[in-house]
Write a structure and sequence with these properties.
single chain; mainly alpha
Length: about 120
């Protein structure tokens, strides 16, 4: 990875060239200045609070953002402890796949819970 001397959380998740390359593959260029400008807390809150669906993938942005941020963190740890790394494209593809699965399970569980409440007379 980048071997930057002072790697704080924001650096690992967003500012590291490896992480930045991943984000740039899924965040539209028109949104880069806003996406890459907030402090860590505001950046996470803003993105986890954005539940708009990505038209191309059909998943909420908040879900994909959370999964890809975790994947970036895990990728950093794989590099540090095992000298392995995933490519940006590989990490994004897996993150989109997991987001789709999470979304499908969450949708199925929500409909099941509402039907269960109906059947139980709640």
């Amino acid at each position: 990875m980048c071997q930057y001397e002072a790697e704080d959380n924001l650096h690992v998740l967003r500012e590291c060239p490896v992480a930045k390359d991943m984000w740039k593959l899924i965040v539209s260029e028109a949104s880069w200045s806003q996406f890459f400008s907030n402090n860590l807390l505001e950046w996470v809150k803003t993105n986890l609070g954005n539940h708009g669906r990505l038209p191309r993938h059909g998943v909420p942005w908040s879900t994909l953002f959370g999964i890809l941020a975790w994947r970036i963190w895990k990728n950093k740890n794989l590099f540090v402890f095992q000298e392995l790394t995933w490519s940006s494209v590989e990490a994004i593809k897996v993150s989109i796949s997991w987001a789709k699965r999470y979304n499908a399970i969450n949708s199925w569980d929500s409909s099941r819970n509402s039907n269960s409440e109906y059947l139980l007379g709640n």
